[in-house]
User: What shape does this take?
Amino acid sequence: MLLRPLPARNEYFGFGVAVAYIRASGHDVDTTFEPWRDLITDIRTLRLSVYDVADRLRSMQQEP
Assistant: This one.
């Protein structure tokens, strides 16, 4: 059985939770939707491993 991380129409929820978690961790992140849309698309099509997702999230962090 395959559990998809972002079922249909939960993209905005996933986006909001990820941004909130990153900010709660004391980091700031780019919140423009385009890079997130690309990440969501890649997750939904199973193109990324968990490690790839972590790398992409780190790359979206803004410098202080």
In short: Residues 1 and 46 are 14 Å apart (CA to CA).
